[in-house]
Design brief:
The structure is a single chain. The protein has helices at residues 11-20, 48-55, 78-97, 132-151, 189-201, 216-219, 224-231; strands spanning 2-6, 25-30, 40-42, 60-63, 102-106, 154-160, 162-164, 186-188, 207-212. By secondary structure, it is an alpha/beta fold. The protein has a single domain (2-231), classed as NAD(P)-binding Rossmann-like Domain (Rossmann fold, 3-Layer(aba) Sandwich). A 7-stranded parallel beta sheet has the order 3-2-1-4-5-6-9, with helices on both faces. Helix 1 links the parallel strand 1 (2-6) and strand 2.
Amino acid sequence: MRILITGAAGFIGAAVVAALKPEHTLRLFDSKPIDADADAIAGDIADYATVVRAMDGMDAVVHLAFYPMRPGAYDTPEMPMRVNVQGTANVLEAARRAGITRIVHMSSCAVVTGYSRDTYIHVGLPMRYSGIYNLTKALQEQACRQYCDEHGMTIVALRPWSVLDGPTMRNWDGTPLRWEGGFLPFVCRHDLAAACVAGLHAQLTGFQPFHIMVGDYCERWFDLEHTHQSLGWQPRETFATLAP
């Protein structure tokens, strides 16, 4: 399969590339330069013509690109809307015109953070959230759902929580991972990459969101059984050594 990966140079993107590279032909898209030996395009996800060029000849898409969570990045909506929302709309429309019907989209559990902890969260619940970042992720999902309904596409929307590196026990910024008590909704980036692989191959149709995280505490709040059964995903890293 020929797969376009947007946001391929990022923390999650590097893990997804490693997971897909052995069995697929990849094209890597990012705003910054990528390995010159790869089929890669450095460009702006919000520029439609560039996205169309990146989409040419592809069979599927793993859409990871988003506006980075730097301090102050989401204080105003201009760049988050441009990158997250306009960029996703560009990917969806360019994929439709290229005849691509399978997309794995990196969403976020942010779209359901408006629910109280006594609410059992399953994928049938309406999105509920606050804040600009969460709004952009919700608008991404709305756009994905429309393209599925209107154009017969299949889009698997993954909703992770805190994405970490399990082998090194480090956060995305390289700082050591420490647990100080409370809720522990983690997922290893390599397990998340495995969910992307599953999303490309699972026998699914239409818009399909899945919560992606690990731990018994998460099972009590989120319907992860649906993820395990319908997506066929099971995490390898449980972060069990962090909890007392």
